[in-house]
Amino acid sequence: MISPLHRPRRDSRSWIVGTAACTVLAACGTAAPVTGPSIAPSTSASSPTGASPAQTSFAPTTVTLITHDSFALTESLLADFTARTGITVTLVSVGDAGEVVNKAALTAGNPEGDVLFGVDNTLLSRALDAGVFDPYVSPAAATAVSSALKVSTRDAVTPIDYGDVCVNLDDTWFASHQLDEPKTLADLVDPKYRGLLVVENAATSSTGLAFLLATVARYGDDGFADFWTALRANDVKVVNGWTEAYEGEFTTGGKGSRPIVVSYASSPPAEIVYAADPKPTKPTTSVMTDGCFRQVEYAGVLKGTKHPEAARAVVDWLLSPAVQADVPLSMFVFPVLDTVALPKVFSDFAARPAEPLTLDPAQIDANRSAWLETWDQVTLR
């Protein structure tokens, strides 16, 4: 099963090796303009400094939206946005989230676009420190978005969606083998689950990185290495990325031999949405909600844009109810607006961890390299 949920972009993380590789990004192509997006721009949008769009409608204007290669929305939403505002949105897909941030950092102050979507909390501090954004938070975020999703943004960007990287389980496999499913991260090192877990490489997959960060958040700087040492002793299998883990090693569909995999809290509904007809009425997988790591994606106005008011209108639009309602089945993530009704398949089968693990973006940025080196030493060498 391949779906937007699993964000193949996030499993291409060559950016980890250093910014020297970023020069390759200059060759990235741009998508054709999407003529049609536009919903009426906000009449009250304002930045933290008090600046606001000077008009509620625009002369024909083109705004370039830089995004990762898994950005997806229903085309009619884009068409409506253009019809209502006069703003044409040109989509430029750069690659994975890391590539998006690296390229934006290299062009900070002289951007190749006007708005950036797709920087997440594992990369946010890097973008903020590089001066990528002209600070702007959509007014809707002040009252309609949970404060937990706005932590450490420095009032520079607006949260748009979120998802949780979690351990997924093959319920059918566990039932047929009469084995209780693991409930916690600590359970994964129990000998009865020896050889059953497959994870993604934290150095080559951002799904894998998120799981590593979950273990750091749970066990701390001094304890996460011991946990991974125990996982290795329990025959954890490490593969390069999500596709190899979920579609190759995971037992769902009978393709693999490992009934425990690191994936997403929204993987079970994707199993239904992307199943062949007749579709099942319930998924055969479930989510272990202990030890999930929350990823939040943001949008921001790029510093140096020639169209600041129109760029702010695009950020406002990404937080509009119409776009937020489209996010679950277009990108298989959760909208940040709690007032938006979820599709039934999402509300029925996507897990919503009560206490997802998080780390401050600045802490991640300061320690990522050291954590990865430690992880590599205890897990792979």
Automatic annotation (TrEMBL):
<dbReference type="Pfam" id="PF13343">
    <property type="entry name" value="SBP_bac_6"/>
</dbReference>
<dbReference type="GO" id="GO:0030288">
    <property type="term" value="C:outer membrane-bounded periplasmic space"/>
</dbReference>
<dbReference type="GO" id="GO:0015888">
    <property type="term" value="P:thiamine transport"/>
</dbReference>
<dbReference type="GO" id="GO:0030976">
    <property type="term" value="F:thiamine pyrophosphate binding"/>
</dbReference>
<dbReference type="InterPro" id="IPR005948">
    <property type="entry name" value="ThiB-like"/>
</dbReference>
<keyword id="KW-0732">Signal</keyword>
<protein>
    <submittedName>
        <fullName>Unannotated protein</fullName>
    </submittedName>
</protein>
<dbReference type="GO" id="GO:0030975">
    <property type="term" value="F:thiamine binding"/>
</dbReference>
